[in-house]
Amino acid sequence: MFMKHRVQEIAPDALRRYMADRAERDYVLIDVRQPQEYEQEHLPGAVLISVSELEGKLGTLNPEQDHIFYCRSGARSMAAAMLAEDSRLLRGQVFSLQGGILAWGGGALADYPRVDVFSGIDSIRGMLLKALELEKAAHELYRQVRAVVKRDVMCDLMDTLIGVEIAHARVVYSYLGKYWNDGSQPIPPFETMFDALQGKVLEGGLTVDELQPWIRGAAQGDCLELADLALEVEMNAYDLYRTLARNAAQGDVPGFALGKDAEPVFLDLATQEKHHTRLIMSRIRAFEETGA
């Protein structure tokens, strides 16, 4: 008698609900396509393990997590999910995304997560200082857009996002205080440190300066266009922190070893970014319904 597979197909909308309701530590999203496909477009937070390499890397997966596999249309991911399930190494649920990324319907990212923005940093304290700079850059972007937009609904969204970035920066600052370890002087007050940051580079690698033409045109841009850019900013941030958390857990952050104590820090920051994306998506739905 053949053993019945526990692999479940999961529809895109069901996966979105699943990801919204789960803690980041509970699951991993695995792209089983080729590197060039991942670079062209991937789901935020996904790790790349090509289907041809999966068997040799099953031992690196956390057996307690749920694993969601996806590919272009669903065929490769189902094969990968069945291989993972048959290995009996995974105790969590195994899913395959029904219809693959073709059925996802928007909200994917190009390029690899920009972990290179942390290049040359050799401690979790240094990474948190850089994370604080990235938050300042997003804050500065939204502040500059707020200064030029005229529509009340967009002013409200930008005001909300400015407040969100301040709140998230305070979360980063609270972690930074735990890793400050500077016997010569205490950590400066949050306001002093945040105000002194230049905030030039966003999590996706773009700079606020590079976005100046877009910012100047924001006064004429429609609500959906502006909200879409904000969504991309927050998805890139989620993608980055999710990747850093996984790298820290596996001890393979390029250039240095953070230790596994860094994993929950970056998972928490990823969770915050995921909440930001949900906030923006709710506004996008409202704009679509009202024609704003």
What do you see in this structure?
One of its GO terms (molecular function) is thiosulfate-cyanide sulfurtransferase activity. Residues 23-113 form the Rhodanese domain. This is Sulfurtransferase. Keywords: Transferase. It is a single chain. The chain starts with 7 loop residues before the first strand and ends with a helix. The protein has 292 residues and is an alpha/beta fold. Helix 5 runs antiparallel to helix 6 (152-178), helix 6 packs antiparallel against helix 10 and helix 9 (223-250) packs antiparallel against helix 10 (262-290). The longest helix is centred in the C-terminal third of the chain and has 29 residues, at 262-290. It has 2 domains: 8-103, 3-Layer(aba) Sandwich (Oxidized Rhodanese, domain 1); 116-290, Ferritin, CATH 1.20.1260. The radius of gyration is 20 Å and the shape is globular. Helix content is 53%, strand content 7%. The model has no long low-confidence stretch (mean pLDDT 90).
Provide keyphrases for this structure.
10 helices; Oxidized Rhodanese, domain 1; Ferritin-like; 5 strands; five-stranded parallel beta sheet; Ferritin; 7% strand; Ferritin-like_SF; globular; 292 residues; alpha/beta
Rg over C-alpha atoms, rounded to the nearest angstrom:
20 Å
Q: Give the end-to-end Cα distance, rounded to a whole number of Å.
A: 59 Å
Biggest sheet, open or closed, and with what strands and sense?
A: 5 strands, parallel
Q: Mean of the pLDDT scores?
A: 90
Q: How many structurally independent domains?
A: 2
Give me the count of strands.
Answer: 5
CATH superfamily of the largest domain: Ferritin, core subunit, four-helix bundle
**Spatial arrangement of strands, main beta sheet:** 1-5-4-2-3
CATH architectural group of the largest domain:
Up-down Bundle
User: Approximately how much helix is present in the residues?
Assistant: 40-55%
Relative strand content: 5-15%
Q: Pairing-aware structural class of the strands and helices?
A: alpha/beta
Specify the overall morphology: globular
Quick one: CATH class of the largest domain? Mainly Alpha
Helix-strand pattern: EHEHEHEHEHHHHHH
Q: Which segments are poorly predicted (pLDDT under 50) over 5 or more consecutive residues?
A: none
Instruction: Enter the CATH topology name of the largest domain.
Output: Ferritin
The count of helical stretches stands at: 10
